[in-house]
Write a structure and sequence with these properties.
Number of helices: 14
Number of domains: 3
Number of strands: 15
Strand content: 15-25%
Length: 451
């Protein structure tokens, strides 16, 4: 019996999951904008929704689930990166997508059923904009097309925001071309050196919000079960998706369940580009096994903020190595509903981990049944995907990389100090400290140790 309960941002409550069609569970998750390497905050969202996908597979069977995770390959950030770095857009997007897929594999995330790219759906996007204009839900101004927010009465329902309280400029683009400061872009003109497509309103490109509305409708229908993403997407991205989709389709609901994972923080501050405290998934994979990173990102409940630190990674690494003592290569199937029930309660991973520790303690004393249960429970959350010897070899390789990285950074710091660049020297010290390395200058030498 399915008794999965999930926190629904739309109702602001923990709701029993009731699919539209149990033979075809539908889930859309906002994927990457491919202009840079994904950071560990993106990794948290990837792993959270991969876990939900695994739970749904156990409940309904993989053939009965359509999981769509898109790739945004046309966007202002991509164009800006291309211009800043002097690299062609195609190379920016292909390199970033390739690295994203490598990160996904290293973190042992299952492939979605469908992975659509925005640039493959421009015709459908133009068709939807045309429909919105015809219904007087959108307007054209100087080659730009905007959604008319005043025509959608439920705007703000998902994010629990009142239109009168929203300030233009707070994640809302300011433009004199808009009738209302909250109106958002559906189509924008493209400069001659920018990617663009012919449309009834001139050569241009679609707005980001529109892309997800079109792709979700094409593969999942006008109303589907689950829409997921990071908390930072709740407003305005997801709010705008609802507005344009529901207004165009004359529906009350786009997705029945809206699920958002919490932020990753570092030193109690949200991880973000503006604060310069981002760490890419690739950087962390250069020092830690993907399974250890996965455990670290699942250690807190997905809705709560998660403090990202060297200590958390070290704890997860130690836990993984301890649990691997009971690793069995052969996969067995049991029906341990007690531990699985933790995940049915809104993906309660902290409780699940506590039960895993209990299972480990009993199994390590020779209980063969519990050992089988333990192995299955580990695989369910996406670990134990490597053989023991492969894990041991990777541990040795990572250890060697760590030392090379530390010595390289120390050498860079010594050179910076010699030329009087103490600001850079301090930055390198802080970077090493952030990664759990303490350095000490002594008698014209620099010594280091793990904290």
């Amino acid at each position: 019996m399915n008794n999965l309960k999930i926190s629904n941002s739309l109702t602001r409550s923990k709701d029993l999951f009731k699919p539209i069609n149990p033979k075809n569970i539908t889930m859309y998750v906002c994927g990457p904008t491919v202009y840079a390497d994904p950071h560990v905050g993106n990794g948290r969202s990837l792993i959270v929704f991969d876990l939900l996908y695994r739970v749904l597979i156990k409940l309904y069977g993989q053939k009965n689930i359509t999981y769509v995770r898109n790739i945004t390959d046309v966007d202002d950030k991509i164009i800006e990166t291309s211009k800043t770095k002097g690299i062609p857009i195609d190379k920016i997007t292909s390199d970033a997508a390739k690295n994203f897929h490598k990160n996904v594999k290293d973190l042992n995330c299952l492939e979605p059923t469908i992975e659509p790219r925005a640039t493959e759906h421009i015709k459908e996007m133009i068709k939807m904009i045309d429909s919105l204009i015809e219904k007087k839900l959108a307007y054209i101004n100087n080659g730009h097309v905007y959604f008319l927010i005043s025509e959608f009465k439920n705007y703000g329902k998902l994010s629990n925001k009142k239109i009168d309280d929203l300030v233009p400029g707070s994640r809302v683009e300011v433009s004199k071309l808009k009738k209302n400061p909250l109106d958002f872009i559906l189509w924008k003109p493209a400069l001659t050196d920018e990617p663009g497509w012919d449309s009834p309103w001139g050569r241009g490109r679609p707005g980001w919000h529109l892309e997800c509305s079109v792709m979700s409708e094409k593969y999942l229908g006008k109303t589907f079960d689950i829409h997921g993403g990071g908390l930072d997407l709740l407003f305005p991205h997801h709010e705008n998706e609802i507005a344009q989709s529901c207004a165009n389709n004359s529906t009350d609901v786009l997705a029945n369940y809206w699920i958002h994972n919490g932020f990753l923080t570092m030193n109690k501050e949200k991880m973000s580009k503006s604060l310069g405290n981002l760490e890419t998934i690739s950087e962390v994979l250069g020092k830690y096994n993907g399974q250890a990173i996965r455990l670290a990102l699942l250690s807190a409940h997905y809705k709560q903020p998660l403090e990202w630190s060297y200590n958390l990674l070290e704890q997860s690494k130690a836990t993984l190595e301890k649990w691997y003592e009971l690793y069995d290569e052969a996969e067995s199937k049991t029906n341990n509903s007690e531990i699985f029930s933790c995940l049915l309660d809104d993906l309660n991973t902290p409780k699940y981990f506590a039960k895993l520790h209990e299972l480990y303690n009993v199994a390590s004393k020779g209980d063969k049944t519990k050992r089988v249960e333990f192995n299955e429970a580990c695989r369910l959350i996406g670990i134990f995907n490597q053989k023991k010897d492969a894990l041991a070899k990777e541990k040795q390789d990572l250890s060697n990389v760590d030392k090379k990285y530390i010595l390289q950074k120390i050498e860079e710091r010594i050179k910076a100090r010699k030329v009087g660049d103490f600001k850079l020297a301090d930055k390198i010290r802080d970077e090493l400290s952030k990664n759990g390395i303490a350095i000490k200058d002594k008698d014209n030498n620099t010594e280091w140790e793990y904290k």
